[in-house]
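Protein: Oxygen-insensitive NADPH nitroreductase
Species: Nitrincola iocasae
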Amino acid sequence: MTNPTLELLKQHRSIRKFTQQTISPDWINAIIEAGQAAATSSFIQACTVIQVTDEHKREQLAECAGNQAYVATAPIFLVFCADMQRHKLVCDMHQADMLSGFTEQFITATVDCGLFAQNCAIAAESLGLGVVYIGGIRNQIARVSELLGLPELVYPVFGMCIGYPDQDPETKPRLPLSVVLKQDVYDDSTDADSIREYDLRVREYYRSRTGGTKEMSWSEQISGMLVKEARPHMLDFLHSKGFLKR
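Structure follows.
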């Protein structure tokens, strides 16, 4: 079964090389409006997007993200922020004492950002643009927060580069459907065998993509990643912003 929307979704690739063709403000507005149309828990609407155009800030953000040059050079760079500050504002407007710091608020605001951003990505791709998410801004998240002037109850979840693609990478193979779609209960009894077969496809993908300079399976990549610390500074930073206190 297929249709144009399904085909568009399945053709997603991360684009890291862009032409310098400009993108009109009307298109950016349309992309953000598409993001706003995403589902939002209890109508909370807890995502704020910051478009960064200042060249010096873009260079610093690229450095924060692990020297990913396209953060500085892509025609458009957006930062998606989980934002509970505006909710404090509306509580103040109604003389209501907001109870903040709940883990549930952190989850709903972060999920809102993910849903919002994915709508933006699909909207951009429907216009012939390419995108890449930039989770690397969390490498130096306190510095990013300072650069963007983020107040308490706001944190940067990830960035996104947008532009006209100047490369045509292959689509990266995803896990077999049987591994991610379960019926009634969680049953992973056959997952290891399915993952071993999938590993062969991923190894071939990397071999093809890099001209043979990289050969790695998915399970090797993930097991290597998960024996290392994962941004251990995040918890203290989120506490400092008023998140995850109860």
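Remarks: DSSP finds eleven helices and four strands in the chain.
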